[in-house]
Amino acid sequence: MTYRIAVIPGDGIGPEVTTEGLKVLKTIEELDPSLSFSFESFPWGCEYYTENGKMMDDDGIEKLKDFDAIYLGAVGFPGVPDHISLWDLLLKIRKGFDQYVNLRPIKLLNGSSTPLKDDPKLRNIDMLVVRENSEGEYAGAGDWLFKGKPEEVVLQTGVFSRKGTERIIRHAFEIAKESGKSLTSISKGNALNYSMVFWDEVFEEVSQDYPEVTTYSYLVDAAAMFFVTDPGRFEIVVTSNLFGDIVTDLGAGLAGGLGLAAGANINPERNYPSMFEPVHGSAPDIAGKGIANPLAAVWSVSQILDHFGHEDWGARVLEAIETVLTEKKANTPDLGGDASTSAVGTELCRVLEEKFKNE
């Protein structure tokens, strides 16, 4: 089976960490003759923007549409406004390919550390956040009136359609049903009296189709508190685009930092390619130094393998990450070590090969 993967290394440390992710995929290809991967790289991103005045080729979506997956490194570069990098590349791909499901695993891996107290209850961090990825506050709807005048008014409209809200909630219920886990909805119905009241009502409606799934519902401020004081109460979480963006970074902070945070932008119907990325950003301050942590990028590779239906390899990659974290022979400076980005990737491949041969 050959899978075509479009690689967008992007900016800053993006090329460095994706190189190690591709190294892992090439190792798997050598170990498993039934799998083959082909890669095509695209130089898009903020650095591309500074030279060409655009974040990607005009026909970029057309070029990407026939790939099986997209592997993104990082986007962001000094001098390029964040709203340009977000709207003209990331959101363009997410919306163009209807990647309406964002999956963010938040798991305290073996060998990783948490800023929480050394309490077994507070170390029980293992949840999957299912974030709506196509509308909400990121729909781009609104207006800027009387710009530059004393009566200046800015309107940012959150868009919550019946289709968009129901399909993300139903997708989360399906994951919860299949995994036998509880599902928690995070909203803010007491303050957002249209969008979040609607969200809560749809969640209740869809829950009637899944009587076997235990459900909970929290206001986002309370949920943020419980993420810190009792993270074990969360298994599968479903929430809106904006709230999901915020609480997943909170979760990443609890589970070892953004260097261990991976994300998948999924088109469940598989009409278009899905996109996989570490979510740590381009970190221009350390770009080119060879010290960036590639583990989130490699975790994204695990998500790619799961998406392709090779959960066995996805699990092996995650186990290899935990082994490297636990043994501490090749940890980057952010994890208390002195290993280079490349050395971590090489060690991951060695562990992966050793585990596979000993199975």
UniProtKB/TrEMBL annotation:
The enzyme's E.C. designation: 1.1.1.83
Keywords, sorted A to Z: Manganese, Metal-binding, NAD, Oxidoreductase
Pfam family, one: Iso_dh
Gene3D superfamilies per UniProt: Isopropylmalate Dehydrogenase
InterPro entries given in the database record: ICDH/IPMDH, IsoCit/isopropylmalate_DH_CS, IsoPropMal-DH-like_dom, TTC_DH
Family: Belongs to the isocitrate and isopropylmalate dehydrogenases family.
NCBIfam families on file: PRK03437.1 (NF002898), TTC (TIGR02089)
UniProt-recorded name of the protein: D-malate dehydrogenase (decarboxylating)
Organism for this UniProt entry: Thalassorhabdus alkalitolerans
